Recover the amino acids of this structure.
């Protein structure tokens, strides 16, 4: 699969970077939910193509409460001698939580996050390793032609989302970049320190900074099955990102309140002028009903936006764990002291 480099998208790119040797341990983090058929093909291929890229390779599969044979498939491949570790969560916590569980358990000097459906090219992962050896701490993949392949509604929605993020946050997140990326161990350790429970990993990856490099890639066709990530999940995901990284919606609520107040005052003066100067009768029930309905809608909209932020606060103060581990296979080799 062809890949190409993109220009730096973060200010850290201007810093000097030092080259590295081959990683002692390379971790591949693979969150999985009902991916038995895909993992049966993907894991042997990853083992074959990446085993020579580090002294030790670990393929860390995070089973996010799968209801198919994901666990049985992975355990069967472990029995065949593949360098796989299996982390089982007690139930389905969602991809963001599963990804965090994988980063918490990964012991690698370099950690690559990939999807379990086979759409992330292994060739791009190899190029990420080359950039890591060249000295970059973060190497993230940007999907080529992603915007053109989306519907007009989704493109418009995406533009609005990134406009809000650009104008309301100091963290600049590159568009069309997902979870497919390589992280140096020091970046992983910093991500582990972040305490929030409302996880928007694209934002957190950008927030920690470090020397970053972008790679453009074309995704493979999904090996088996179909994606279950629909518009409702996308909307929920976007709300988490907005409430976690920008206050623009709250500021827009304040601006909307100011505009409505000014319009209301102006309309009131106009009614008085019509009555006192032009002798026009004051409009009756229709105008009153329309005004009340409009203002009620504005108030409910504002309350809804405020409620989203309040809900995030409520989730944080409960301090529940992000995930619960059912079991985890032991490391392939002991980790040296930090």
């Amino acid at each position: 699969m062809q890949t190409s480099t993109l220009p730096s998208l973060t200010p850290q790119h201007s810093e000097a970077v030092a080259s590295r040797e081959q990683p002692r341990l390379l971790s591949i983090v693979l969150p999985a939910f009902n991916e038995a058929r895909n993992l049966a093909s993907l894991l042997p291929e990853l083992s074959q193509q990446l085993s020579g890229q580090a002294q030790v390779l670990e393929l860390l599969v995070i089973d996010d409460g799968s209801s198919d044979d994901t666990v049985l498939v992975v355990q069967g491949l472990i029995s065949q001698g593949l360098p796989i570790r299996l982390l089982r969560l007690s139930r389905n916590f969602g991809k963001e939580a599963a990804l965090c569980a994988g980063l918490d358990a990964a012991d690698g000097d370099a950690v690559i996050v990939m999807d379990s459906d086979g759409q992330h090219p292994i060739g791009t992962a190899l190029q990420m390793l080359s950039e890591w050896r060249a000295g970059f701490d973060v190497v993230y993949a940007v999907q080529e032609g992603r915007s053109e392949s989306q519907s007009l509604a989704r493109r418009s929605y995406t533009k609005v989302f990134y406009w809000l993020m650009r104008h309301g946050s100091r963290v600049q997140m590159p568009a069309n970049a997902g979870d497919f990326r390589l992280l140096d161990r020091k970046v992983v350790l910093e991500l582990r320190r972040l305490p929030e429970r409302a996880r928007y990993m694209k934002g957190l990856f950008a927030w920690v900074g470090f020397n970053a490099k972008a790679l453009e890639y074309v995704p493979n066709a999904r090996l088996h099955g179909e994606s279950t990530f629909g518009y409702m999940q996308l909307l929920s995901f976007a709300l988490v990102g907005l409430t976690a990284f920008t206050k623009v919606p709250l500021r827009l609520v304040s601006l909307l309140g100011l505009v409505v107040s000014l319009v209301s005052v102006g309309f009131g003066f106009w009614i008085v002028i019509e009555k006192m100067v032009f002798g026009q009768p004051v409009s009756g029930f229709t105008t009153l009903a329309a005004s009340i309905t409009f203002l009620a809608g504005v108030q409910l909209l504002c309350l809804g936006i405020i409620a989203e932020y309040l809900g995030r606060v409520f989730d944080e103060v409960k301090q529940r764990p992000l995930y619960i581990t059912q079991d985890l296979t032991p490391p392939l080799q002991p980790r040296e002291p930090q």
Q: What stands out?
A: Confidence is low (pLDDT under 50) at residues 1-15. The beta strands are 3-5, 25-32, 56-63, 84-89, 110-113, 138-143, 177-184, 212-217, 325-328. The longest strand covers residues 25-32.
